[in-house]
TrEMBL record, chain A:
Region feature (Disordered): 368-387
InterPro entries linked: ABC_transp_permease
Keyword Transmembrane helix appears in the UniProt entry: yes
Keywords: Cell inner membrane, Cell membrane, Membrane, Transmembrane, Transmembrane helix, Transport
Membrane topology classification: Multi-pass membrane protein
Name the UniProt record assigns to this protein: Autoinducer 2 import system permease protein LsrD
The organism of origin for this protein: Cryobacterium breve
CDD domains in the cross-refs: TM_PBP1_transp_AraH_like (cd06579)
Main subcellular location of this protein, as a coarse class: membrane
Protein location: Cell membrane
Annotated TM spans: 54-74, 80-100, 107-124, 130-153, 160-178, 198-221, 252-271, 283-301, 331-354
Keyword ATP-binding in annotation: no
TrEMBL record, chain B:
Record text on subunit structure and interactions: The complex is composed of two ATP-binding proteins (LsrA), two transmembrane proteins (LsrC and LsrD) and a solute-binding protein (LsrB).
Protein name per the record: Autoinducer 2 import system permease protein LsrC
Keywords: Cell inner membrane, Cell membrane, Membrane, Transmembrane, Transmembrane helix, Transport
Alphabetized CDD domains for the sequence: TM_PBP1_transp_AraH_like
Coiled coil, from the record: none
Record PANTHER family: ABC TRANSPORTER PERMEASE PROTEIN YPHD-RELATED-RELATED, AUTOINDUCER 2 IMPORT SYSTEM PERMEASE PROTEIN LSRC
Organism encoding this protein: Cryobacterium breve
Superkingdom assignment: Bacteria
Lineage start: Bacteria, Bacillati, Actinomycetota, Actinomycetes, Micrococcales
TM region(s), chain numbering: 32-54, 61-80, 100-124, 131-151, 182-203, 232-251, 263-281, 288-306, 312-332
Chief place of localization: membrane
Function: Part of the ABC transporter complex LsrABCD involved in autoinducer 2 (AI-2) import. Probably responsible for the translocation of the substrate across the membrane.
Length: 387, 348
């Protein structure tokens, strides 16, 4: 939609200005960029003042504030419970970031986690070895993701509608598999491992696995041609096709990715709470998407990064946890998530409007003969395209 | 994009006689698949279990569908403009709880006033959505996901552990969902009137047709001179009013209203609209279709019970239905595109 280059080409309309110049020399000034115009950040400033960095500063500032202001916050116990709570969201947010960057969405993740959990329960009850149970459950997630991917990438159906359908389908299959039952007698050694901590740090042992997943998707998105291609797909599918990116194939594998990681989250959920039920992780999809969007990923695709999303997930998790320590009712906390989400998307919009207004005023000052309305209407189309 | 239901048949049909083209138009009707599915479902179920269409059975069917029908009609308006409103479940919850509170705190309040207050509250919540979407120019999916949480949080903070039960409400209010006229429960009649009004508005007025234009191509609609922001705002406002109405009816229909009333309803409503032939990317579909979709999705639950199918299969079948609706829509749009290409080639 809005390529970064389009604004520069629009601000220098060469041909009409050339025509006018022979008649009226004063108007040539409009083609000159203003000397105080911001040129875009480069080098260290770009990283240190970017959207991701602001997110990380916010997170650090909040953690600092909480450690000082809330008595029981800065302790290994807090760290442990906080991380155990955010792990499912953190896990699923990684592939979800990639999916949303390509301009698609996956609402079926929580249902895949639920389906995995239900399968684990039934297979374990039937007496299979736990290794086999885990392998089959993970494979079910891969298949579920591949089915999404087939419908979206191969058949070309809209992802929002397809994943609402599979959201119901996979949750329904979970119900079919396990019904009203709950399976809780998983091997104690395994469930203990899933809540164990690394030494005295309070960091859960499973965080190692989560870090591996995050590194995998971080490297995939930021350091490989495949990942860079995802941004291109998010900006423009047609353009991406023309530069030789295999759009369908990339999307298919992304959905396999969300399916597999959702299955991992389902396995984690089952073993952490030591309970396999059909309604495990239900409603998690919206939490994950809220966290990803808060982390700076545009719902239209084309922008966002893994570090920003990790900071976003941890920020929501930390705020919720500290409010809970302050004995604020659990259920009210979702308002914080909602407000943060809206603030994170409205703020850039307000900021941009402010900048445009200042730009317009500057134009007006330096070029008094150009009407202010003309100056604003020249920038307006680019802004409206972004919505 | 696919054609809107009221759009005249393509240019190629001009030479063909009127009867087949009318048949063709009927076959291309976006509400056709959902209608066929609904008729087939009801027929099969009735054959197997004749009690399914008994007066009481029909009444239960309609009562179950009423709330979702109203919500789906409102959602259709929003989706047609290429937006979406995920906050409807939370709006319904807030209004339903507000209704319960109103009856308890103001004894003897006229029921009409309660309806008005509920719809006004819904209008306010819908207007907040609409303002954020149109003024801040932020995608509706994100905004309404945010307000879904905020409204639900407000509901939680307001209600806490409080619940209002049927005994807290005047009998006349509860009777709305018990008494029937010609076999139709009163609240269902309200829903039908609402759907008809919205459908006429959408199909027959200029502002209603504008919504289709906006959904097909927002930029083109703007160039054409349609006040896009105002129309989209209006769609969200109307959806809020309808969600408010649904909230009041919910309080009449169900025994208890509390902090979690209506949670998780949003995706079911979007699903109903999609099953009813409203394209998720806007520009096509109708309110009647969305209402039929809602009726189909709620009928399945009762039908499966009547057919003695394991109740656990129900949600999976809903999922399959949604997917088939999308696939049918896709096939139809591919065929329309091909036909248009052929007729264009002929005209050149």
């Amino acid at each position: 939609m809005s390529e970064p280059g389009s604004s520069t080409t629009r601000s220098s309309p060469v041909t009409p200005a050339d025509k006018i110049s022979s008649l009226d020399t004063r108007l040539i000034d409009t083609t000159k960029t203003l000397p105080t115009e911001p040129k875009g950040r480069t080098g260290a400033a770009r990283i240190l003042l970017g959207r991701d960095a602001i997110m990380i500063y916010l997170l650090l500032a909040f953690v600092l504030y909480a450690s000082i202001a809330i008595p029981r916050f800065a302790s290994p116990v807090t760290v442990g419970f906080l991380l155990l709570d955010v792990i499912p969201v953190l896990l699923i947010a990684m592939p979800m970031t990639l999916v949303i960057i390509t301009g698609e969405i996956d609402l079926s993740v929580a249902s895949i986690a639920g389906l995995t959990s239900a399968l684990m329960g039934v297979l374990w009850e039937s007496g299979l070895d736990i290794g086999v149970v885990l392998a089959i459950s993970l494979f079910a997630g891969v298949v579920a993701g591949a089915f999404n991917g087939f419908l979206i990438a191969v058949a070309g159906l809209p992802s929002l509608a397809v994943t609402i359908g599979t959201l119901a389908l996979y949750r329904g299959l979970a119900l079919v598999v396990i019904g009203d039952n709950a399976v809780a007698n998983f091997p104690p050694g395994l469930t203990a491992f899933f809540t164990s901590k690394i030494g005295a740090t309070g960091i859960p042992t499973v965080m190692i696995g989560v870090v591996v997943v995050a590194l995998f998707f971080g490297v995939l998105l930021h350091l490989t041609p495949f990942g860079r291609g995802l941004y291109a797909i998010g900006f423009s599918k047609e353009a991406a096709t023309f530069v030789g990116i295999r759009v369908s194939r990339a999307k298919f594998w992304l959905y396999v990715g969300t399916g597999s990681v959702s299955a991992l989250a389902g396995i984690y959920w089952t073993l952490r709470y030591s309970s396999a039920r059909s309604d495990n992780a239900s409603g998690l999809e919206l939490t994950v998407i809220a966290a990803v969007l808060l982390g700076g990923v545009s719902i239209f695709g084309g922008t966002g990064s893994i570090p920003g999303v990790i900071a976003g997930v941890l920020l929501i998790g930390t705020i919720n946890f500290s409010l809970r320590l302050e004995r604020i009712s659990d259920v009210v906390l979702i308002m914080v998530t909602g407000s943060l989400l809206i603030a994170s998307v409205v703020a850039p919009s307000v900021f941009e409007a402010l900048q445009r207004w200042r730009h317009g005023r500057r134009m007006h000052k330096t070029l008094p003969q150009v009407p202010a309305s003309g100056a604003t209407s020249a920038t307006a189309p680019g802004v409206q395209e972004r919505k | 994009m696919t054609t809107a239901p009221t759009r005249p048949p393509g240019t190629a049909e001009h030479t063909v006689s009127a009867v087949p083209s009318r048949l063709g138009a009927l076959l291309r009707l976006r509400e056709l698949p959902v209608t066929v599915a609904l008729i087939a479902l009801v027929t099969i179920t009735t054959v197997v279990n004749p009690l399914f269409l008994s007066p009481q059975g029909v009444k239960d069917l309609l009562l179950n569908a009423t709330i979702v029908i109203i919500l789906a009609a409102g959602q259709a308006l929003v989706i047609i403009t290429r937006n979406v409103d995920l906050s409807v479940g939370s709006v319904l919850g807030l209004v339903a709880f507000g209704t319960g509170t109103l009856f308890v705190t103001v004894p003897g309040i006229p029921i009409v006033v309660v309806f008005l207050v509920g719809m006004l509250l819904g209008a306010l919540l819908g207007a907040i959505n609409g303002l954020l979407v149109t003024v801040a120019k932020v995608p509706a999916l994100v905004i309404t996901l945010g307000t879904l949480y905020i409204y639900r949080g407000l509901n939680n903070a307001w209600a806490g552990g409080t619940q209002y039960f049927a005994g807290d409400r005047p009998d006349a209010f509860g009777a709305l969902s018990v008494d029937t006229v010609l076999g139709f429960p009163l609240i269902t009649l309200i829903a039908i009137v609402v759907v008809v009004i919205v459908a006429v508005y959408l199909a027959g007025t200029r502002a209603g047709r504008d919504l289709y234009a906006i959904g097909s191509d927002p930029d083109a609609a703007k160039l054409f001179g349609i006040p896009v922001s105002r129309r989209v705002f209006l769609a969200f406002l109307t959806n809020g009013v309808l969600a408010g109405l649904a909230g009041v009816l919910y309080a009449s229909r169900f025994n208890s209203v509390g902090a979690t009333t209506g949670s998780g309803l949003e995706l079911a409503v979007v699903a109903a609209a999609v099953v009813g032939g409203v394209a998720i990317f806007g520009g096509s579909g109708s309110v009647v279709g969305a209402a039929m979709g809602a009726l189909l999705l709620t009928t399945i639950t009762s039908a499966l019970t009547a057919l003695r199918v394991d109740k656990f299969w129900q949600e999976a079948i809903v999922g399959v239905l949604i997917l088939s609706a999308i696939i049918i829509d896709r096939i139809a749009s591919v065929r329309t595109a091909r036909k248009l290409r052929i007729s264009e080639a002929r005209n050149v």
